[in-house]
Amino acid sequence: MTSFDSPESIKHFQSICDACQELTSRYYSPSELRIYADGYLHSLRNCKRLDSRDQEKLEALIDRWIMDPSSFVGPDGDINNLFFKKEQG
């Protein structure tokens, strides 16, 4: 894993991870998670909260993290139920 040079970078990484996990628990798709993360990262970039090197590391790590389904837990704790709401019968 890539290490960050500042605690603020870690804080933002954790914030994105927590928010994406919450969105996953409400059955948001990977593309919707990507849109959320892109907006968050874009806002960080515009306000220049992070050093450019940490910003690039954060963006690369989030890209890999969102694309890896093992990063998430399904709404009922089962990875097989990620992103798709089961039909009630």
Descriptive account of the structure:
The chain has 89 residues and is mostly helical. It has one domain. Helix content is 60%, strand content 0%. The protein is built from three helices and no strands. The chain has helices at 7-25, 30-47, 52-67. Helix 1 runs parallel beside helix 3 (52-67) and helix 2 runs antiparallel to helix 3 (52-67). The longest helix is centred in the N-terminal third of the chain and has 19 residues, at 7-25. The chain is elongated. The N and C termini lie far apart (43 Å).
Uncertain spans, ≥5 residues at pLDDT below 50? none
The major beta sheet can be summarized as: none
> Structural class of the secondary elements?
mainly alpha
Helix amount: 55-70%
The pLDDT mean sits at 82
Distance between the amino and carboxyl termini: 43 Å
Classify the beta-strand content into a percent band: under 5%
Number of strands: 0
Total separate domains: 1
How many helical stretches? 3
Label this structure with key terms:
single chain, 89 residues, mainly alpha, elongated
Brief rundown of the structure:
By secondary structure, the chain is mainly alpha-helical.
Strand and helix layout:
Layout: H1 7-25, H2 30-47, H3 52-67
